[in-house]
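> example.struct
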């Protein structure tokens, strides 16, 4: 069995029966510096194959279990707005022919040096003076002519002037690759020949609607302009779970998708309350600080009021197709 964790975490080591049968672990890390540290810590002097994005072993063909926790929200997005145009503006189609009459067309938000022109996204934090901003393109771009036309969900919003959508093609590509690995697709590497494995996606975003105006920067646990302090601010955007599900299902008929469900529902079903009670039972009764940390921690994860994590975060699973007969635990299934 192989295990891929698209986040730096320590989840699996707490489950001895599972960790004891893992034969390979893949860590997906964007930072070159952290990749080097992971290599030294985990591999030491063991020979590894160096590739463009880091290091890897050459073993494939095992059952893949993939956990993507707050991975998709960090992938790049394209943002578009529907505008009403006329033939006099000579808006071109991909074939180069001008459109006639009054039509709606997607325009892309592009990065530009700061000015007083139209911007997009959350307002900059007080005291910040970003060097860049997003401006709406005056003409169609290659991305605006292609990406919004890939889904009927976007098409339904095109006729409404001012509609804004966010599209993450890289996220859809990852979801498709997850499905192909689980389904033993010919497009996935290695000799794996049977449908097996699963992918669990945990992130934040709307359950069914297209994300809008969600591009943000996060610094010191607060939302700031995504263009303030370049290189020192984490960039994030809501995940389009419906687009991920469509990408996985379109990539293979041998998988099925469950969710998204709210994090509070997923964690309660998985037994977070019982786990917290066990931790408290094994904690020194006089260690009030630790007991409070455990109690506050699990309740914060399932809290649903306002913008709490239990409501904002969602869980989705990609699993082998069973025609709905074997629903995963956390998504309506039972432990067997």
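> example.seq
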């Amino acid at each position: 069995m192989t295990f891929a964790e698209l986040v730096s975490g320590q989840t699996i080591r707490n489950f001895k029966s599972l960790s004891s049968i893992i034969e390979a672990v893949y860590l997906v890390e964007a930072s070159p510096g952290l990749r080097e540290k992971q290599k030294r810590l985990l591999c030491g002097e063991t020979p590894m194959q160096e590739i463009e994005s880091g290091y890897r072993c050459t073993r494939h063909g095992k059952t893949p279990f993939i956990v993507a926790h707050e991975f998709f929200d960090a992938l790049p997005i394209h943002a578009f707005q529907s505008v009403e145009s006329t033939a006099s503006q000579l808006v071109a189609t991909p074939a180069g022919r001008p459109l006639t009459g009054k039509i709606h067309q997607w325009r892309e938000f592009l990065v530009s040096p700061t000015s007083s022109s139209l911007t997009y996204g959350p307002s900059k934090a007080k005291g910040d003076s970003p060097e860049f901003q997003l401006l709406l393109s005056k003409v169609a771009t290659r991305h605006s002519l292609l990406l919004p036309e890939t889904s009927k969900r976007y098409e339904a919003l095109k006729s409404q002037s001012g509609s804004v959508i966010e599209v993450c093609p890289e996220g859809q590509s990852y979801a498709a690759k997850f499905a192909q690995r689980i389904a033993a697709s010919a497009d996935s590497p290695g000799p794996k020949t049977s449908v097996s494995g699963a992918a669990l996606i945990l992130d934040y975003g709307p359950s069914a609607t297209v994300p809008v105006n969600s591009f943000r920067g996060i610094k010191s646990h607060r939302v700031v302009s995504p263009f303030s302090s370049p290189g020192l601010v984490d960039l994030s955007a809501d995940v389009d779970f419906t687009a991920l599900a469509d990408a996985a299902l379109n990539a293979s008929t041998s998988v099925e998708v469950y969710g998204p469900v709210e994090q509070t529902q997923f964690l309660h079903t998985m037994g977070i309350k019982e786990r917290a009670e066990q931790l408290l039972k094994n904690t020194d009764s006089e260690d009030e600080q630790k007991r409070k940390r455990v109690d506050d921690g699990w309740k914060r994860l399932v809290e649903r009021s306002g913008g709490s994590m239990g409501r904002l975060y969602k869980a989705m699973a990609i699993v082998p197709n069973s025609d709905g007969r074997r629903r995963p635990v956390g998504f309506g299934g039972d432990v067997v």
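> remarks
The longest helix spans residues 288-302.
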